[in-house]
Amino acid sequence: MKFVDEVSIFVKAGDGGNGMMSFRREKFIEKGGPNGGDGGDGGSVYLEADENLNTLVDYRYTRRFQAQNGQKGGSTDCTGAKGEDLILPVPVGTTVIDAATQEIMGDLTKAGQRLLVAQGGWHGLGNTRFKSSTNRAPRQTTPGKPGDARDLKLELKVLADVGLLGLPNAGKSTFIRSVSAAKPKVADYPFTTLVPNLGVVSVGRYKSFVIADIPGLIEGASEGAGLGIRFLKHLARTRLLLHLVDMAPLDGSDPADAAEVILHELEKFSPALTQRDRWLVLNKADQLLEEEREERVRQVVERLDWKGPVFVISALESEGTEALSQAIMRYLDERTVRIAEEPEYAEALAELDRQIEDEARARLQELDDQRALRRAGVKSVEEADDDDFDDDDDDEGGAEIIYVR
Q1: Which residues contact 109 (CB under 8 A, 6 or more apart)?
Q2: When you count CB atoms within 10 A of the terminal residue's CB, does the N or C end of the chain come out lower?
Q3: Which residues lie across from 210 on neighbouring strands?
């Protein structure tokens, strides 16, 4: 199934039914009086998070959705039928944005969570409603109100506990295959992974976490090189980042240079994202002799001035992956306890999440505007008119190093 993480759709709620003007007419009953019923309310439009979906591909080509209108009122005080609500299923992790105001209407982060995006129109009143002691034969009704109509932008951010960062061929897909049941494509050429992959890592009975394999970055990705940075937004909701580095690249390049490239692109995308807890994972240890490993690790750690945890693994041989998985589980458990017991810590994390979301959205919008300008043949933002934009589209101390067993 094609992975789609951004779509634009139009939703229209149902209109309310008109009120009825009617009078009671029965044999032997003179001046029976008004008996026109109210119309029915129009159906509303809801978005509902569905855990069985992992892409917005269903909204790629069908983009207009309308709820049912309410029926008009009937005689003998019969109320018109209410329009049926329209419920649109979306993946868990979908952000809903009003395209006209760029206001975030809501985040669907739990399965079954429902969000009202277009309110159905209110029903019209029948002439029975206007009967009074001085107006015994009212000929007044009201029409139903129109339902809300909105252009929406849906953005999917995968929900994962851990996100993988690294250059192409750093071994991210091999790692996720090693620690989970996920089977992303693995090959000996760059950009094997074209879309995010999720895997569930089990580390014991009733203990597991979700890990996300993000397509590899290259130098210049923040300017659109390679696959660009559009998939980095999926890291916004992760709790921990694993920075995978090939410690024995075939081209003989310095592994520290690869790590610095990723850090640079991350900072250009969202400075706040660099404040997320991040561990350095040196992969492909099986490519080096025992005596070479320690020296290579020391060089990388010193060059990067790394203060956090460092893990040395071989994803291909599953060496060190179990220790890494156990350490991640302990970290996530401790984080959960701290959030529950320390309100200041919880608030700081929430604020960091908001900053990352805001910076990511602003950066992606900036890149969209730049692409629109290039299509319009405009060189700079200062030269552009509104019509040129296309709406469519740190702990102190030494590093903790854990070696393979």
Answers
A1: 49, 92, 93, 159, 237
A2: C
A3: 200
- Ramachandran area for residue 22 (φ above 0: left; ψ -120 to 50: alpha; else beta): beta
CA end-to-end span of the chain: 39
182-207 pLDDT tens trace: 665 454 444 455 567 778 888 877 78
Q: Do the beta carbons of residue 23 and residue 35 sit within 8 Å?
A: yes
Tokens linked to 52 = 């069985």
User: Cβ–Cβ contacts within 10 Å for residue 205, how many?
Assistant: 6
56 with 5: CB under 8 angstroms? yes
Distance between CA atoms of residues 68 and 108, nearest Å: 24
**E runs forming strands in 214-319:** 240-246, 278-283, 310-312
Helix and strand counts by DSSP (H, E) for the chain: 5, 15
Tell me the residue type at 97. I
The candidate with the shortest Cα–Cα distance to 174, out of 183, 162, 166, is 183
Q: Which two tokens stand for residue 198?
A: 């999720």
pTM of the shown model: 0.69
> Tens of pLDDT along 334-370?
999 999 999 999 999 889 888 888 887 787 777 777 7
Q: 262 in helix, strand or coil?
A: helix
